[in-house]
Design a protein that fits this description.
By secondary structure, the chain is an alpha+beta fold. The protein has one domain. Helices cover 21% and strands 34% of the residues. It has two helices and four strands; from the N terminus they run βαββαβ. Strands 3-2-1-4 form a four-stranded mixed beta sheet, covered by helices on one side. β2 and β3 form a beta hairpin. The chain is globular and about 30 Å long.
Length: 68
């Protein structure tokens, strides 16, 4: 549902980055980050602010939805 058009932002810890973004450089532990995910759960991008993740979704014509 919504593949290609819907995305969601999820707060993650820097310790979770290697599992979601294996190509990312090593990040210090204990940081609060935000990941933009496609509707199917595929990670799209990583940032340090929710606003930046939403802006990236908007610039890629993706509608962000809330997940709980």
């Amino acid at each position: 549902m919504g593949e290609g058009h819907i995305a969601y932002v999820k707060q993650i810890r820097s310790e979770d980055v290697p599992g979601l973004f294996p190509q990312a450089p090593e990040i210090a532990p204990g940081l609060k980050l935000f990941a933009l995910h496609a509707a199917d759960g595929t990670p799209i991008m990583l940032t340090d602010s929710r606003e930046a993740a939403i802006a990236n979704a908007w610039s890629n014509e993706l509608e962000t939805v809330s997940v709980h």
